[in-house]
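Appendix B. One record, verbatim.
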Amino acid sequence: MAGYNMMYSYKRVIFFIFLLILALTVTHVVKTPDVVALSSISGKNDHKTRIFLFRHGERCDRSDNLCLSDADGITLLGAEQAVNNGEMFNARVSDYEVYSTDTTRTVQTAKYFSGKAVTVLPELSVCDVTIFDTLKKLAAKK
């Protein structure tokens, strides 16, 4: 009987480890976006609408660097980085629309990055599963 209990315990441990690995794999897949090299952007999904998400530039309220404007905006360094990254992006992708959340730092970053008019959509600030619906609606407009 002791052998049976020991075998049952091993099976439970193996099953638990399997569930743990499965959970970690699913979590990793769901939370890890595709990272695309800038050089390969133009060859990706040419038949589909592409959505690129960019983080805002360096925040004034979390830096000792000079600010572009108010404390809720980005620093001069953040603006410079946005311009430089935007130039590299624009060399590969020219036909795109720019959307931003309604915070000063994201609007500033989007403007410096793209050099284009920025459409502000407060619903992009919602960090839950509804963001996928918002992004799908934007993709459907194209």
